[in-house]
Amino acid sequence: MTTALPCDSGAQYDCAYDLSQANTMALACVADTVVTFRDEGQLYSFMASYEENSDANCPLFVLSGGSNVLLPKQLQAIVLRPHMRGITLTDQNQDYVDIEVMAGENWHDLVLYTVSQGWYGLENLALIPGLTGAAPVQNIGAYGVQLEDCLQYVRAYHLPTKTWHRLSAADCEFGYRDSLFKRAPNTWLISRVGFRLHTDATKVLASYGDVQKVAQRFAEQQGRQQLAPVDVMHAIIDIRQQKLPDPKQLPNCGSFFQNPIISQRQFTSLQTAYPDIVGYPMQGAMVKVAAGWLIEQAGLKGSGIEPIMTHQQQALVLTNHRPYQATQADVIAAQNHIINCIYKKFEITLSREPVWVNSDATVGHGEHEI
Ligand code: EPU
To answer: Which of 300, 305, 350, 355 is deepest in the core (most CB within 10 A)?
Structure first.
C-alpha cells in the first residue's frame, strides 16, 4: 500500500521500513510507513492533516520500544513512534519529588537517573527493556513493585477524537500486566508519564526471592549496614542478568506467558500431585501460579519448536534463535506446543503476555484453541 502523507509536520517519515531491529523479539517485519515524532507539536501537525489526506484510511499503529509486541511480516499501517525526550522536575518537598518523563526516554536509563538523584521508587523495576511511554500499557512489574505504585498521571493523545487527555492512575484502570491502554489498542498515544518518587533512602522493598541476600552483599561492599535503594537496584540488575536473556544477545520479549490465576480448589488438588508447585495467594480464594515452574515441570525448559525456544534460566521467556528471519508463524507453533503440553499435564490454559499484532494493525489474534 502506498501512502501519500503530509510531510510538513517536522516528523521523520520512512516508507517500506524494516522493523525487525525495532522489536526485541527480532521478528521479521516490514511496515508500510513509519513516522517518528521528536515533539508533541509534530504529532499534532501530523494528526491534523492525517484525515484530510486521501490515504487516511491506512490504519495507525503505535510502536514504542518494541519490547512487548509480536509483529507480523508485513505491517500495512502507518506506524507512529513517539520518541520525545526529556525529564522535568515539576514539584518537590522534603519527602517526595514529582517528575514528568517524556515517552521516548529509555526506561532503564530513567531508573538509573532517578536513583542517582536520590529519588526512589523505581529501583525494583531496573533493567526492564523498553521506553517510558510503553510502561503504563502493561503496568510493568517486577520484584514486588508495579508501575502503578509510583505513577501519578499519564498525558496521552486519543487518536479517534484527536484530543489530549491527562489520566490519573485510577483513570488508567491498572491490573496485573494490564491497563486501559492495553485493552483499547490503537486508541491512545502516550506522550508523558508523571511519577511521584520518595526521598527516604532507608525505605526499600527487598522481600522478593533472593533480593535481600544479594542487596546485602552490595551494601557490605559499600560499608553500609542498612540496605539503601541503590543496593536493591544493583541486586535486581544482577538477578535479572543471571536469569533473563539480554534481548541484544538473544532476542526475546520478556515473560511470554502471564502467571495464570486459578482457584484455590484446583491449586490444592495440584499440590497433592505436585507438592513443590509455586503459587501466590490472591484475593477471592484464587492462587497465581508461577508459569515458569509449570513449563519447567513439563520438561520444556530450554526446548520449544525451532527457532523459538524457552530460555535455559527462565522457562517463562521465549527466545528467538533466528533473529530477523523468524516470523509470527514460528512463534505460534512454539506457543501452541507449550500451551498444549501445559494443559495436558495440569489442566491450566496459559495466556500470552505480549501483544499480537496483525497485518492490518488490529491486535489480538494468534489465539490458541484447545
Ligand atoms: N520458576 C521455575 N522455573 C523457571 C522459572 C521460574 O521453577 O524456569 C519458579 C521460580 O523458581 C520461582 C517462581 O517460578 O519460584 C517465580 O519465578 P520468578 O521469580 O523468576 O518470577 P516469574 O513469576 O516467573 C515474574 C514476572 C517477571 C518478573 C519476575 C520478578 C510475570 C509474567 N513475570 O516472573 O516479569 O521479572 O516475576 O518479579 O509476571 C516480564 O514481565 O517480562 C518479566 C520478566
So the answer is: 350
Residue nearest to atom 11 of ligand 1 (CA): 293
Asked if 353 is an active-site residue, the reply is: yes
Would the pLDDT of 55 be above 90? no
Q: What's the pLDDT tens digit per position in 160-183?
A: 998 999 999 999 999 999 999 999
AA letter at 140: I
pLDDT tens digits, 234-265:
999 999 999 999 999 999 999 999 999 999 99
The model's pTM is: 0.94
Checking phi first, is residue 170 left (phi over 0); if not, alpha (psi -120 to 50) or beta? alpha
CA dist 310 and 305 (Å) reads 9
Amino acid code (one letter) for 26:
A
Question: Is the CB–ligand 1 distance for residue 301 below 6 Å?
Answer: yes
Q: Which atom of ligand 1 is nearest to the CA of 209?
A: 19
Residue 116 has pLDDT above 60, yes or no: yes
Q: From the candidates 81, 177, 192, 196, which is the catalytic residue?
A: 177
- The active-site residue, picked from 45, 100, 353, 359, is 353
- Nearest alpha carbon, ligand 1 atom 27: 142
Q: Using H for helix, E for strand and C for coil, what is the string for 188-199?
A: EEEEEEEEEEEC
Rounded Cα–Cα distance for residues 369 and 209 (Å): 34
Q: Is the CB of 290 under 6 A from ligand 1?
A: yes
Task: Give the amino acid at 128.
Answer: I
Residue 208 Cα: closest atom of ligand 1? 38
